[in-house]
Amino acid sequence: MNTEESDLVLWPDPDTMTILPWRPTEGRVMRMYCDI
User: How many structural domains compose the chain?
Assistant: First the structure.
């Protein structure tokens, strides 16, 4: 089985959530790490 055929699930880690400070206040962008 290759990665195209497997079922991969991302589990977000809310402790790693960060609002990126160099973006404008409208349409903010955040970063969050996930476990596979």
Answer: 1
With bands split at pLDDT 50, 70 and 90, how would you rate the model's confidence at 32?
very high
What pLDDT was estimated at residue 24? 73
Q: How far is CA 33 from CA 10, 20, 29, 36, in A?
A: 9, 13, 14, 10
Are 13 and 30 within 8 A, CB to CB? no
Query: 3-state secondary structure string, 17-29?
Result: CEECCCCCCCCCC
| pLDDT greater at residue 17 or residue 4 | 17
